[in-house]
Amino acid sequence: MKRKFVLMLLVGFGFFGCSSGLEFTELPIGGNIEAKDKSGQLVSFKSFQEPVLLVFFGYTYCPDFCPNTLAKIKAAVEPLTEEEKSKFKVVFISVDPVRDSPETTTKYVQFYLPQSVGLSFSADTTNQILKQYAAYVQKTEDGQSFDHSTYIYVLDQNRKTRKLIKSTDSKEVITKSILALSSNSVESK
């Protein structure tokens, strides 16, 4: 009987304890950007009205991680109400400025999520942003694709990075992160 109680306690802790995956803290990477995109328009994350930004790096020719991650975000937000959907925006930043224009990148990401924007900057600006976000990008030997980090950076209304969502995290982590940060119920640590 005692063994069953301990097992039930451990299982309960696993469901309700530290493994929720929803710790929010202010991370020293990422944050607001202010830069001109390839079309010459000034982009500032602080100009977006939505209280939560999901920032993701990728490219439109990506064969796997980018479409899979965007599909996961789409599945994560499907159960949200229209009001809840208005509380976040996906910002897809191209790591392939040679092939991806701002228009192409926006069209690509909006295929998955209408409440999104695609950004493409010059190579120098892209490299600065990648450094600011500590994102990994490496052109492959064939020169046609990129190995790149697949984190979703979750930014709060002050444009501070509050969470990194891994590509292996469940869609529920995305949903709960949007809801928690958009409700202002999360305090800065």
In N-to-C order, the SSE pattern is HEEEHHEHEHEEEEH
Poorly predicted sequence stretches spanning 5 or more consecutive residues? 1-21
- CATH homology group: Glutaredoxin
**How many structural domains in the coordinates?**
1
Q: For the largest sheet, list the strands in their spatial order.
A: 5-4-3-8-9
Level-2 CATH architecture: 3-Layer(aba) Sandwich
- Rough shape? globular
What would your notes on this structure say?
With 189 residues, the chain is α/β, with parallel strands linked by helices. The protein has one domain: Glutaredoxin (3-Layer(aba) Sandwich). The chain is 34% helix and 21% strand. The strands form 3 sheets. A 5-stranded mixed beta sheet has the order 5-4-3-8-9. Strands 1-2 form a two-stranded antiparallel sheet. It has a two-stranded antiparallel sheet with strand order 6-7. It is globular and about 40 Å long. 32% of the residues are buried.
